[in-house]
Amino acid sequence: MSSYWAKRRRILKGVERDKQEIAAANDALLAVIPDFDQVNPPVNEHQHGMASTSHGQTVTPEAQDITVDEVYEPSEIFSSSTEDSEEEEDCLRTQLAGWAIDNMIPHVALGKLLTILSKDHPTLPKDPRTLLKTVTCVKTTELSGGVYHHSGIESGILSQFLVSPELQKLTSVSMQVNVDGLPLFKSSNAQFWPVLGLIEQYVCNVQQNKLPFVIGLYYGKKKPSSLHFLNPSPFVEEAQRLEAEGVLFERRALPFKISTFICDAPARALVRNVKGHSGYYGCDKCVQKGVHYENRMTFPQTDSAPRLDHAVRDELSDDSHQCGETPLALLSVGLVTQFPLDYMHLVCLGVTRKLLHLWLKGRRLTRFSPSMVKELSRVLLTFTPHVPCEFNRKQRSMEDVERWKATEFRQFLLYTGPVSLKGLVPTIKHVLETCS
Length: 436
Fold this sequence. Notes:
It is a single chain. With 436 residues, this protein is α+β, with helices and mostly antiparallel strands. The chain folds into four domains: 4-132, no CATH class; 141-271, no CATH class; 274-324, no CATH class; 344-435, no CATH class. The chain has helices at residues 4-32, 36-39, 61-72, 74-102, 107-117, 128-132, 153-163, 200-204, 234-245, 265-272, 309-313, 343-361, 370-383, 406-420, 428-435; strands at 51-52, 58-59, 141-143, 146-150, 173-179, 182-183, 191-199, 213-220, 247-249, 252-254, 256-262, 291-292, 297-298. The strands form four sheets. Strands 3, 4, 5, 6, 7, 8 and 11 form a seven-stranded mixed β-sheet that branches. Strands 1-2 form a two-stranded antiparallel sheet. Strands 9-10 form a two-stranded antiparallel ribbon. A hairpin with a 4-residue loop joins strand 12 (291-292) and strand 13. Helix 12 packs across helix 14. The radius of gyration is 33 Å and the shape is globular. Mean pLDDT is 79; it is low at 43-78.
């Protein structure tokens, strides 16, 4: 992982390279614009009423005036050059703003670059917020102990059509929605709860970048105490309207639907208004009662009756699981089938990390010896130089397992783990023979 100073040096190099490109483009532009003094040389009025041409021929003042007015027309030259310069400045301003957004340039670095460029381009703003046209005032609504701002579903979809012209060929729009908490500071409880949307057709085409957009944003000192940030909310109202009328684009009404809600366990319980995953009836997929085992809730049955969409939609059908009515019941969304389980927390940060903790710090029957842990770390580190760029992170040793990210647990589970554990973990046959 790159350090702060490495990132800073890389950004400064990029800024310096872009400055050189801008300066080169400016020099080329100045070389193309003609000098008016060379195009229309001044006439000496005291030269006995005559003027000589480049070929030694003389012309009368009347003929000379006609030539200057009809051919050179200085006012047109000045006006056209002024319009061209204004267009160039507008183009430069647009390119700088796009470059800063695409490369995530900090405002401090962008402000220093604008200060340098202002010497040759006085019309450029010196404040990055003016260049990027940062919105300083938004419409918010006070609710649920915080404030909520709704950006819009349809406007977000149309903005994606402008960014990716390939999406304009769609005959229908299927969208995924994500709701999750986002802490802002380490020294404060202030947090965001953004409602994000992602056009599902992005996921089908791996050649395109997945570009989520903000539908709404909730801010508060704690997570929403109720579902008021969803109901009554422009989100549910606009989603109902789009399901009925479709997304209007170029005089076409594209059918619209919400395919899935991607949330972790606490967010799923919040938006569906049901018991959390630590409750006795907190399972999202079945109706069994949980068993409290070793300070955690478990659901050991594998043949329990499944939980149905209409049962969750009707708050009176199962009050042991539901806390009340959910605003999402107003939409044509399956409250069970269209809320998939969170693979990252359940498998990567759940089962895989639990297995490693049992092998490293578990009971004596399952715990690896120090020599086995050292050998496992050695084998994992031999994979590091050969990990391709498609993986987000390089493989680390067992000493850093407490700081592993979800992608590292996934890499260990699917790729490096089966190879590195071969010969270290005893087979089932060996375990049965030892126990007997």
